[in-house]
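Dear Dr. H.,

I hope your travels went smoothly. While you were away I took the liberty of generating a structure for the chain from your last submission, since the lab meeting agenda had it listed for discussion. I wanted you to have the full record in hand beforehand rather than looking at slides cold. The sequence, exactly as received, is reproduced here:
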Amino acid sequence: MATPAGTTQKAWRVVRRGSPSQALKFQNDLPIPTPSPGSVLVKIQAAALNPVGYKLMKLLPNLIAGRPHVTEHDVAGVIANGNGTEFKEGDSVLGLVDNSKKQGALAQYAVIPAEGLVHIPPTLSLAQAAGLSLVGLTAVQGLVDILHIKAGQRIFINGGSSAVGALAIQIAKTEKCHVTTSCSGGKIEGVKSLGADEILDYTASPLWNQLSSATTPYQFDAIFDAVGTTALFTHSKAYLSPKGTYVSIVPEMNGVFGTLWGLFETSCRPTWLGGTPRTFKFFSMKPSKKNLQYLADLAREGKLTVPVDSEYAMEDTLKAYERLMTGHANGKVVVNITH
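The corresponding predicted structure, in token form, is as follows:
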């Protein structure tokens, strides 16, 4: 049964600033929320972790972060209360939880707007479904909605082995683009299996140098940066078409001064002061049922999969964060929610 047996639930809440081991507290007495009109109650079965989760735990003070609150966004589960929406009890769904309501993915239940959910395609496991929403929405919005990629274009995706990069490669190939990407030498075979046409090992030498000095010059129609590498943009005149656009999902994190300088170089420095004569755009992912359905349809058609690195029990959530924080996860790190 998806309907709650009681009125309280288990969850991991962020109660203070710090690393996950310092900031998170496991509680078993939180009230199960009641859905408002247009929303449903989801019985969460799996939750995927994202680097932004632990980074915000470390960075933001309690007042700004609105603590305490349940952490993480990505969920897969079943409808416990359809509340008069398109969904009925027992439907398998995936989507995002809004932390601003003090809710999060690392809980047994969450109230989510029906507009923020889609049915899980049968081609995805529960763990894969949990890991799709945030990284998939980021990839499709960057490539399709902002860069407007088209068949035949040559695209460079920085960070092909990252969770966002892995989805971006598959989406770009579905749109019939030629994809060049980057990863470390040890991950080349895995990235190649996603469909990338050409792969550069970023540990061999700086990517901008490899691209600038290639025997056959590169000329990309667009660059999608899933890592945040300032130098890749500042040297892009050599390999990004004059009409091309460089899109990044994050700034390069290099201490306070280094990060601010990178933002100046990419977003503020005019060309007459030595700025790069190419279009640069930052963007933040926004929930979108249309985009989420696009991703689910690709998965249903066998054109998209979600790499999963590892799965952990709910009580081992801190170990799951330890794995994620190594930076060596080959796919999503997923927590299975117990009931």
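Two observations you may find useful: Residues 8-132+306-336 form a domain with the Quinone Oxidoreductase; Chain A, domain 1 fold (CATH 3.90.180.10). The longest helix spans residues 133-146.

With kind regards,
E. W.
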